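input
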Amino acid sequence: MKKTKSSKILIVEDNQSMRKMLESMLIELGYHNYASTVNGLKAWERIQEGDIDVVLCDYLMPEMNGIELLRLIRQTRSFCDLPFIMITGADKRGDFMRSVQAEVDHYLIKPPNINQLEELVKKVIAHRQYPTEYDKAISNGKYFFLNTEYDKAKESFEAARKARADSALPYYYLGLVYQQLGDEKNAELHFQKSLAIEAQFVSALLALAEIYQANEDYVNLACYLQKITAILPETFDIHIGLARACTRTGDIDRAQRHLEDAQQLAKNNTDQIKEVLDGYIEAGLVDEADLLFGKKIQDDNIEKTIHFLNKLGLRSRKKKDFDKAKYFYMNCLKLDPQHKAVNYNLSSLLFLQKQYDAAESYLKKTLRLYPDFAKAHELMEAIQQKLPRLS
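output
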């Protein structure tokens, strides 16, 4: 068994001054065996080397925050019991403190106090070396669960529940077991029970959101994602998911607010900006999508630009804003006059507007280039039925 002072401690902190302060404190306390990383993504790479005994992690960081790292650790067989101390400046937000306490071992409040740091590090190391019956049951349950031995996992989590009726964690893990066994009703019931104990337990909220997403229950999905955003207001994926759920329930104003939040969080991340663009298009917010596209990815390659403008055209047509749809299609054709899908979509639009001659003209060009285009032949037949026949 490792001596306390030889335990390998990983500091995860993006702020250089804070990182150096924590390093200095550990050295002063006699913990010379430490490593440091600047975000959760780098920390996860370091943890996988297998020699870390304690994680001392900031909450808010770029690329991967503390909660995202924690969830990854808890869901991985080799590291699911790794002691985790969360560093946060959220000393005035009790809800945040409760949100993940079922999976965080302890919290260290900024600015850190060396005496508190010493106490917490000693606690988590001793706790791992001398686990309670509850800890053993949870640890065994995780092991069985991650090895797909679900009946044994259920027995262990039930034992943990009996050992500590005030803990949300056994109910949460029982919910995961039932979910894997295909018993969705029992899974939902146990996730709800864990939330009755820890109302801000993010993992349980996310688990319920996953169930409602799979069932296309967008009302409940929006409800639970909203609870998560109240706890984790700076999580891009949650805002995007919530915007889509609101779109499906017809609450477009609320969808727009969350898309705007997601846009702010995306900054200049092209992949995330494109998700926001898709969200705007799905919600029918064509002007907002067009504006964002012009600001952020106008200089992207031609094929991607055409793909996006074509989607805007289709959405505008769906909203019966035919002039705007035509505007987007024409901009596509400036970039690629022979584009198969755009010429067809423009012909379809002109047909709806009863501009049969113009529709026929674009469609003829399409069929010259793509003679096997079946849908274009069908549309041409419909157009020619509308055109006046020559006597």
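quick obs: The beta strands are 9-12, 34-37, 54-58, 84-88, 106-109.
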